[in-house]
Write a structure and sequence with these properties.
The chain has 253 residues and is α/β, with parallel strands linked by helices. It has one domain: Rossmann fold (3-Layer(aba) Sandwich). The protein is 46% helix and 13% strand. It contains nine helices and seven strands, in the order βαβαβαβαβαβαβααα. A seven-stranded parallel β-sheet has the order 3-2-1-4-5-6-7, sandwiched between helices. Helix 4 links the parallel strand 4 and strand 5. The longest helix is centred in the middle third of the chain and has 27 residues, at 102-128.
Length: 253
């Protein structure tokens, strides 16, 4: 992926990793568009960052996908990078969950169905560009799950699998497919913003951008902090690592 001269759409771009990437790409002179549910948050970001545009968008709602994609195609016909970053993470106590499974269904709709639907809607536009990129944000927890967030981890594992298939099917097109695999980062997910165990957001974004700069053909972006999760099965000691991670978060609420 080239780092300049792009028009980039980042879902969930109003905060956390999405906002960090938006600022980093904008600083390199790219045209950056962020999308998210909270208009007030988007307005604050664009006011503080004049090079960034914003479109309110609720990726959880099936009916919002096509109108949003049509607007993006109309307003940004040169769009050549889609970063599927929007996601929600909720603790689920499986023995005490509500009968309607509202949390689980919301997580699946946002984290998995949303990116699949949006990718499908924007593929024709991306395919018209001379070169374009789809970056799907999964998680280290796709490879070694945190048991208190079972549906989140399941959706991220599914995003990993979907990304592998997407890359294979698009190999004859001008669309490259990248998977960004974050570790535990200091964001609002799981109250990580103040957790000293989490990787500082600024350090994470800086390392991601350096990998993209030095490895422009990389298909997976793994910072050092996530490699023990990403390669837990290959490295051995999976069971011990799984137990250690989950014991450390067993009391979270």
């Amino acid at each position: 992926m080239k780092l300049t001269g792009n028009t980039i759409l980042i879902t969930g771009g109003g905060s956390g990793i999405g906002l960090g990437l938006a600022k980093a790409f904008s600083a390199l002179g790219n045209k950056v568009v962020i999308a998210g549910r909270r208009r007030q948050v988007l307005d604050a970001v664009t006011a503080a960052n004049p090079g960034i545009s914003a479109i309110p968008f609720d990726i959880e709602k099936r009916e919002s996908i096509r109108p949003f994609a049509d607007r993006v195609a109309k307003d940004f016909p040169d769009l050549n990078v889609l970063i599927n970053n929007a996601g929600i993470m909720r603790i689920e106590r499986l023995l005490a969950q509500p009968k309607d499974l509202s949390d689980a269904e919301s997580i699946v709709a946002t984290n998995l169905l949303g990116p699949i639907r949006l990718t499908a809607a924007l593929l024709p536009l991306l395919a018209r560009q001379s070169r374009s990129t789809i970056m799907n944000v999964s998680s280290g927890l796709a490879f070694l799950p945190l048991a208190i967030t079972p549906t989140y981890c399941a959706t991220k594992a599914a995003i990993h699998s979907y990304t592998e298939s997407l890359r294979y099917q698009l190999q004859s097109t001008p669309i490259g497919v990248i998977e960004l695999i974050p570790p535990y980062v200091r964001t609002d997910l799981l109250n990580g913003a103040e957790d000293p165990r989490a990787m500082p957001l600024e350090a994470f974004v800086a390392e991601v951008m350096e990998i993209l700069r030095t490895q422009p053909e990389a298909q997976e972006i793994c910072v050092e902090n996530v490699k023990r999760l990403r390669f837990a099965a290959e490295a051995g000691g999976y069971a011990a690592l799984f137990k250690g991670l989950n014991d450390a978060f067993a009391g979270a609420d």
